[in-house]
Amino acid sequence: MSFLLFQASVAVYVLSFAAYLVFFLTRKKPVRRIGRAIFLVAFLLHTVNILARSLEAGHTPITSHHETVSFFAWSVSCCYLSFRWRYTVKNLGVFVSFLVFALMVVASLSSRALLPLPPALQSLWLPVHASITLFADGFLALACIGGIMYLLQEREIKKKRFGLFYSRLPSLEALDKLNHHCLSVGFPLFTVGLVTGSLWAKQAWGAYWHWDPKETWSLITWFLYAAAVHQRFTVGWRGRRVALLSILGFLSVLFTLWGVSFLLEGVHTYVS
Q1: How far apart are the C-alpha atoms of 157 and 65, rounded to whole Å?
Q2: Residue 209 in 3-state DSSP?
Q3: For 207-216, what is the mean pLDDT?
Q4: Are residues 181 and 261 in the same domain?
Q5: pLDDT, position 85
Q6: Residues 207 and 168 grouped into a single domain
Q7: Is 125 found in the same domain as 75?
Q8: 109-162 pLDDT, tens per residue?
Q9: Helices (H), the chain
Q10: CA triplet 178, 181, 184: central angle to 5 degrees?
Q11: Is 236 left (phi over 0), alpha (psi -120 to 50) or beta?
């Protein structure tokens, strides 16, 4: 059942991205409304898929590579919808729907086998730590998308060649506010995820920190975002510098989630 729901959600996410892309190119408002509606349907299907997978597995489905990527895509969708409910950022949907679609394709290429949980994962900390961290990553993904959009728009303005992106992307001020909001939410959540991970490590392995590769890269990622937040809210950095830090931080997030597990062995390797 969960497999069919997953396939259905992938298909509807594809339709959503296609509708958003058509709107991006044609700027016909009815197409944008259709894209939003389809994206919401895809998110609801994805939500039911995750619930069904939970029932089948008997635990929160965030332990295999397939489950983690799928849950990450769902968290990005959820964060985007929560942001969209309060703020309007022109054409953010086309970039978000593409990222979610890409993540779902990666998840679909991974093994969907249901494996028994290792003893260390048989804990209530699993849904707490993993879900908080992936929701943090969802907001940080939006900050990265905002950073990319900022650099594209800034490039158009500096070159004074108002082409494809200039009229279709929000103002630099709006994109800077997007970055502000997402860092304000994502960084505290990431910090909570780091703390809960340490508490879980103490319970599972008897120490708060082991300098495992994934723990080490999580700390590196935290410092990158701590620098971005400090420079933004204390020093007053805005615009391009914060956009670049947001992109760099998210690349570190991706490496922490998957690169470490594939390239470096450690106690967290089985999670990916």
Answers
A1: 41
A2: coil
A3: 77
A4: yes
A5: 76
A6: yes
A7: no
A8: 888 888 777 777 777 888 888 889 999 999 999 999 999 999 988 888 887 777
A9: 2-26, 29-57, 65-86, 92-108, 125-159, 172-205, 213-230, 240-254, 260-263
A10: 145
A11: left
| Residues 251 and 132 both lie in one domain | yes
Tally the domains of the chain.
2
* Residue 244: pLDDT over 60: yes
pTM: 0.88
Q: What is the pLDDT of residues 58-85, one digit of tens each?
A: 888 888 888 999 999 999 999 999 888 7
Domain span holding position 196: 117-272
Q: Which residues of 130-165 are buried (b: 16+ CB within 10 A; e: fewer)?
A: bbbbbbbbbbbbbbbbbbbbbbbbbebeeeeeeeeb
Among residues 98, 114, 130, the one where a domain terminates is 114
Are residues 55 and 126 both part of a single domain? no
